[in-house]
């Protein structure tokens, strides 16, 4: 589905609330750079997850905290979604590919999001538009691999060493990476009082 001039290496898009950003985000972003041979990973700051009742902390604060954590120029923070006024990933990716016609994108997410991916708005459009890299997360591996999306798109999964070809693959294509996991989450940080949310 992606079109245009695409000889440059792909950009990974890690969408999230980042409320706050933490070592788990950094860990999967670096793994994505390495495993999928990406040029960069962009942390796409969500104005608010449509499936979460509670709103996140103010965008500027989340961006500042994320930028303070990042320790490589190959990971960047993007406010594209807020600027575009989109809350839904399918719409955001349509706008993003239109705004950057020369780039090739890969959607990145944790296993918890694969488990409920079929509840996302126009979720099949996402799979038709970009390859998807999924990262194992403690406790979420089985639910993700048994999910509706994983079952329906079984044929499109790149397994084993073929996962490394994800960024060059034609959509629909997805890969599950379970090299190592980090047991850290924004909700645990908030619960421990390490971050005041919105
Ligand atoms: N430790 C982790 N391992 C793998 N993926 C992760 C990890 N932490 C976050 N992610 C993924 O990064 C993306 C953005 O995550 P998000 O900003 O919601 O953080 P979170 O820790 O999941 O937040 P919360 O605990 O509030 O749900 C999501 O796709 C999520 O699955
Ligand atoms: O488009 C949807 O319906 C949708 C539903 C749930 C989550 N998302 C996106 O998934 C990403 C991860 O969300 P979160 O809140 O788990 O960080 C973030 O970019 C959200 O906008 C998108």
What ligands does this structure carry?
Answer: adenosine-5'-triphosphate, nicotinate mononucleotide
Strand order within the widest sheet?
3-2-1-4-5-6
**CATH topology, what is it called?**
Rossmann fold
- The counted number of beta strands is 6
- Cα(first) to Cα(last) distance is 37 Å
Helix proportion range: 25-40%
Morphology: globular
CATH architecture: 3-Layer(aba) Sandwich
Describe this structure as you would to a colleague.
The protein is of the alpha/beta class and 198 residues long. The protein has a single domain (10-191), classed as 3-Layer(aba) Sandwich (Rossmann fold), CATH 3.40.50.620. It is built from 9 helices and 6 strands. The protein has a 6-stranded parallel β-sheet with strand order 3-2-1-4-5-6. Helix 4 runs parallel beside helix 6. The longest helix is centred in the first third of the chain and has 13 residues, at 23-35. It starts with 10 loop residues before the first strand and ends in a 7-residue tail after the last helix. Nicotinate mononucleotide is lined by residues 15-17, 44, 46, 49-52, 88-90, 113, 120-121.
């Amino acid at each position: 589905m992606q079109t245009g001039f695409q000889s440059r290496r792909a950009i990974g898009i890690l969408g999230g609330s980042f409320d706050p950003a933490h070592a788990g985000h950094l860990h999967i972003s670096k793994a994505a750079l390495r495993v999928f041979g990406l040029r960069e990973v962009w942390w796409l700051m969500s104005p608010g997850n449509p499936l979460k009742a509670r709103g996140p902390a103010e965008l500027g604060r989340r961006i500042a905290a994320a930028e303070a954590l990042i320790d490589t120029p190959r990971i960047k923070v993007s406010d594209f979604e807020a600027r575009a006024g989109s809350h839904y990933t399918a719409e955001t990716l349509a706008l993003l590919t239109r705004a950057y016609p020369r780039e090739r994108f890969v959607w990145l997410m944790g296993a918890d999001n694969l488990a409920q991916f079929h509840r996302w708005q126009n979720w099949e459009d996402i799979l038709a538009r970009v390859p998807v890299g999924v990262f194992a997360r403690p406790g979420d591996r089985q639910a993700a691999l048994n999910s509706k999306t994983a079952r329906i798109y079984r044929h499109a999964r790149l397994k084993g060493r073929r996962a490394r070809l994800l960024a060059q693959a034609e959509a629909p294509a997805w890969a599950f990476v379970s090299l190592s996991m980090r047991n850290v989450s924004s909700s645990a940080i908030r619960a421990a009082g390490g971050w005041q949310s919105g």
